[in-house]
Amino acid sequence: DIKAAGAADVNNLGIYRYAPSIGKWLYVGGNFDAARDMMSIDNADGGRYAVIENPKMAELAFCDIDTSWAQLYIRSLCYAGFIDGYLEDGARYYKPKNEVTRGEFVKLLASAIGLSTEGADASVFADSDSIPTWAAPYAAAAYNAGWFAGVKTERGAEARLSERITRQDAMALVYRVFFDGKPASGTIGFGDSSEV
């Protein structure tokens, strides 16, 4: 339980856990008990927690995730600014059944590490004319940072940001962003590792 006194709107309160690997506070849920003026969560692992009032919670609410098993994770990524979802007819959708595209995943990783997109130019990709406007600066910044090279083709490197991302490509990007150049601390075996 964490004291939650002084909130302007208790509907905007949440419990956040500090993620030192990315230097950000991530939403982990929370229930407000008005009688005790306290916030609580069911399962708290070790780490630093805080009650934070996020005035944008209502604005960032997705109208299609209430029954999704990933609801908490989706909200956490949204409140941290890593994902935006889709705005359609004045409503915000996440579309949890959609497959994640290469562009969406690159944006998520770039946002997670605070990668600057200033001055990033997507013309380095042979398919730059087909790159969605919202994704272009993230892909170009990731390319400049050295962790996203696109797909090599006869025309040159293509970002292919509208294609769905495979597990293999997603994990390769996660590794390059968070672990590349750091000493390995062991091995992990996967049943399908021979297919990678």
List the helices and strands and how they pair.
Layout: E1 2-3, E2 13-19, E3 24-29, E4 31-33, E5 38-40, E6 49-53, H1 71-79, E7 86-88, E8 91-93, H2 102-112, H3 136-145, E9 151-153, E10 156-158, H4 167-178
Antiparallel strand pairs: 1-5, 2-3, 2-6, 4-5, 7-8, 9-10
Helix pairs in contact: 2-3, 2-4
Net shape: elongated
**Rg of Cα set:** 19 Å
| Order of helical and strand elements | EEEEEEHEEHHEEH
- Percentage of residues in DSSP E strands: 15-25%
User: Main sheet?
Assistant: 3 strands, antiparallel
How many individual helices? 4
Mean pLDDT over all positions: 87
Are there runs of 5+ residues with pLDDT below 50, and where? none
Count of strand segments: 10
Spatially, the strands of the biggest sheet line up as 1-5-4
Helix-strand category: alpha+beta
Helical residues, percent: 10-25%
User: How far is the first residue's CA from the last residue's CA?
Assistant: 44 Å
Explain how this protein is built.
This protein is of the alpha+beta class. 21% of the residues lie in helices and 19% in strands. The chain has a three-stranded antiparallel beta sheet with strand order 1-5-4, with no helix packed on it. It is elongated. The model has no long low-confidence stretch (mean pLDDT 87).
Entry summary:
This protein is an alpha+beta fold and 196 residues long. It has helices at residues 71-79, 102-112, 136-145, 167-178; strands at 2-3, 13-19, 24-29, 31-33, 38-40, 49-53, 86-88, 91-93, 151-153, 156-158.
